[in-house]
Amino acid sequence: MPKEHIRKRGKRKTKASDEPPLQPTTHVSEPEPSVSTGIHPARAAMLAGQSIPVQAHSSPQDAQLEDSEREGKDENQWIRGPRVESEFPFGVLDPDVKAYFKSIEEQIKDWEGVSSAGEEREDRQNFLSSVLSELRGHELSAATDPETSIILERLMPSLSDWGRRVIGDSFGDKWEELIRHRFGSHVVQTWMTLAADTLDRESKGIWPPQQAKQDPMAGRLPTMTSLFSSIISILLPAIHRLISSPYASPPLRLLLLILTPRRILPALGTERSENEGLIRSKKSDKWRKNQDVKGKSILGDDQSTAQSSNRALPEDLRLYRKEIRQALMEGLGEAEWKAMGVDAVGSPTVQLILEFEVDEGDAEKQGSLFDILTEGIVTQICSNDQSVFEARPYLLSLIMTQTGTRLSECILSLAPQKVFDAIWSTYFEGKLGKLAGHPYANFVVAKGVSRLQLGKIEKLIEEVLGNSGGRGLIKAARTSVVQALVDRSLVLTDSQRAVFDLIKSCLELPHDKHAFLVPCLMVLKTFPMYQSILTGEKATSPEPAEGNMEDDDVQAEASFAAAARLSAWQNRRSAKPKDDLAPNMQGCLILQAMVGMEQVNEILLESLLSLPIDSIIAYAKSPIASHLLDKVFLERSVPPKYKKKMMMMFMKSYKELVEDRLGSRVMDTIWEQADGYMKEKIARSLIPFVTELGGSQYGKFFIRRADIVLLNRRPDEWREKVLSVRHHFAHQKEASTPFVGLRDDITKRKKEKHEKDEIDELFDSVDTRKKRRIQN
After folding, report:
1. Other Cβ atoms within 10 Å of 631 Cβ, number
2. What does the alpha-carbon distance between residue 183 and residue 191 come to, in Å, rounded to a whole number?
3. Residue 306: what pLDDT?
4. Calpha distance 665→623 (Å, rounded)
5. Sign of dihedral through CA atoms 389, 391, 393, 396?
6. 136 within a domain of the structure (yes/no)
7. Residue 393 above 70 pLDDT?
């Protein structure tokens, strides 16, 4: 090989070193940090509420000159200035104070709702005083901090009326900024809920001890009534803008509820309560549940009146609710009200305003919110216009959309009777067959059914039967209209037979197959589908969709199906294999309501009794179906003979019932409703299993309650104790008791005479000999 072809060792040169770097052909405007604060100029302008500056394009030569000029500047210019952001409108909380609050959070969690007395209570009061002293001066920054705001919420229930007033006074005139804030709005909600108790006591003339010790020269702490007056005066000018804010709207809705006397307020803890959906969203409830917010005092002396319907309101605040409503009506136009009605944030507010209009008697006036949302129906009624009402697109959109159904239900439930009749005849009659099976409109129809009279209920049933006999309601599991009809028939008893015929038609149940009523409705399957599942045959194909279905219905069905798929995807990890014949909640609720239908409940009860005992025991062990059995035993309209038959069916299975977690609850219901004879019969059937049930997790409680051991040993005492029944010979035994005691005394004396020792007998014999000698 030639020498020049031999590869020499050495480091290879990279291609990058050979090729010169490419220069950009066009200038790229890159973001530049601010020289003074270290924040980009666009962000600094946005935080300051100014317009965003537009950077002028410069040539590469100018950029090089600017870079050379910056090199000579101070090296410390990269340090950021003071942090002022919208997330911290009152400044960043002091790190030491923040660390202190985080350190005491676990202690507050341990003491929440736990009672205290003596020295322990005094220790907790001292702890509370030290925490409040650390909080002083940092109330606003602590309320808007993402970590300390929840700690402040935990602390507030422990404050007295005086402490709540101090906190409210420390917020000053910053209420608008607070309720706009993501975390501050929740602190305001908690404070307002607790302040309602203070307002109730102030209206009754109950004041804290510090009220009489105030020094007028040093200043007086505002009362809670004056604090609320100042809050309303601060928020009133901007309330029409705040009401649609996602953070400010819930505190304002709570304020409206507080200004309504005798109105129950939402609970502070994780438990659900009335009006909860009007204030907090599901997302907020879930977050508070994860944080384990109990809303209890660390002193353990909660005496809240917020959950009471007797909550009072000071006279000075009674007119503010109407003033707020008038300010909203003046500040918002018709288009804005309609937009709020279909908005997830604004819809609860609209529902509250509608309720207040009805309370104050303004619902039937022209220009009212009812008139705006019904698009002139109230005006047409007030003007005595006899023309036919025309359907308008807005109310139709409310009925057909997911966010609008809540407002539609509110309108139907609160509307005056004339307005309701006009809405029902215009928007519902003639379309009920399709609306009853609509994924969203069926809930609106169900709400309207609760106000219908007998004639309109019969028309509704005819329309539903005209739409494929109503079997689509069962196949699609949209039973809210059927449930509402059953509930309404309990009031209008003359409609019970027609409602029952509708249910049979929906189930496709033949007239001679009434025995399958309970099993078909319990699993929410039509009779042919139920039979096909039992036999293992292929189910009949579902009914094809109507060719003339409107686009709105197609879109609604598509969105509903998409939501169902999303929910299934989210719950895929916890999904369990589906049982086609498992009890269904909707079907069980209908059955429970049908038990109270006096005219037709015997058919249902006969169907239930015709089931094999294994099926009924399976119902008793089900968390869903067990409620049907409870309803059968507790409902007054059920004839007593059916209750006794049901009890006798369980006679050989009470042991299995008692040992189950849910079956034992059904057993308790049976025991409460059984008479004395049946109780003894049930108890005697369990005597052979006393030992086994004594070791059962659930059976041992019933053994103690029924006192089976006493029945086995002393039946008479068991009857007196458990049944409060005395034996018919008991009075004779009591009467003969003294004579028995007298005989015992006589016998005892005779025994004492005969029972003598040997010495006594010896001396007795000596005495008798002496007597004989003397006589001789």
Report:
1. 18
2. 13
3. 59
4. 11
5. positive
6. yes
7. yes
Q: How is residue 722 annotated by DSSP?
A: I
Other C-beta atoms closer than 10 Å to the C-beta of 572 total 8
Residue 29 lies in a domain: no
Q: How far apart are CA 547 and CA 218, in angstroms?
A: 80
CA distances from 579 to 121, 137, 146, 324, 527 (A): 54, 61, 45, 53, 17
Span 646-658, average pLDDT: 93
pLDDT in tens, 448-501: 999 999 999 999 999 999 888 888 899 888 999 999 999 999 999 999 999 999
Secondary structure letter of residue 219 according to DSSP: -
3-class SS at 120?
helix
Q: Give the amino acid at 496.
A: Q
The CA angle 574-577-578, to the nearest 5 degrees, is: 110
- Model confidence over 143-172: pLDDT tens digits? 999 899 999 998 999 888 999 999 999 999
CA atoms of 2 and 310, how far apart (whole Å): 111
346 assigned to some structural domain: yes
| pLDDT for the residue numbered 76 | 42
pLDDT of residue 296: 82
Same domain, 490 and 440: yes
Confidence of residue 45 (pLDDT cuts 50, 70, 90): low
Q: Which amino acid is at 307?
A: Q
Q: Are residues 476 and 363 part of one domain?
A: yes
The model's pTM is 0.75
Which residues, at least 6 apart from 642, have a Cβ–Cβ distance to it below 8 Å?
602, 605, 609, 632
Q: Specify whether 513 is located in the same domain as 661.
A: no
Range(s) of the domain holding residue 747: 734-775
Number of domain units in the chain? 4
pLDDT score of 73:
41
Residue range 60-114, pLDDT digits in tens? 444 444 444 444 444 444 344 344 446 788 888 888 988 998 898 888 888 877 7
* Contacts for 364 with CB less than 8 Å, ≥ 6 apart: 370, 378, 381, 382, 416, 418, 419
**Closest to 510 measured CA to CA, from 534, 496, 489, 526:** 526
Residues 437 and 506 in one domain: yes
Q: Check if the beta carbon of residue 378 is closer than 8 Å to that of residue 419.
A: yes
Alpha-helical (H) ranges within 595-707 are 601-609, 613-620, 626-634, 640-649, 654-658, 663-673, 676-685, 690-694, 699-706
Most confidently predicted of 38-42, 360-364, 518-522, 563-567: 518-522
Structural domain ending residue among the three candidates 249, 269, 300: 300
Rounded-to-integer distance, Cα 477 and Cα 586, Å = 8
Query: Alpha carbon of 600 to those of 430, 489, 604, 608, 634: distances in Å?
Result: 29, 11, 7, 13, 17
Place of tokens 């079997």: 471
741 and 703, same domain (yes or no): no
Name the amino acid, one letter, at 380: Q
C-alpha span between 251 and 246 (Å, rounded):
10
Q: Using alpha carbons, select from 652, 649, 646, 648 the residue that is nearest to residue 689.
A: 652
Looking at the fold, whether 357 and 443 belong to one and the same domain comes out as yes
Chain centroid, CA 57 distance in Å: 58
Q: How far is CA 270 from CA 273, 280, 292, 390, 461, in A?
A: 9, 11, 7, 45, 41
Q: Residues 146, 290: one domain?
A: yes
What are the structure tokens assigned to 82, written together?
A: 């003071």
Of 702, 723, 744, which residue constitutes the final position of a domain?
723
Residue 260 lies in a domain: yes
From the CB of residue 173, how many other CB atoms can be counted at a distance below 10 Å?
Answer: 10
Residues 440 and 335 in one domain: yes
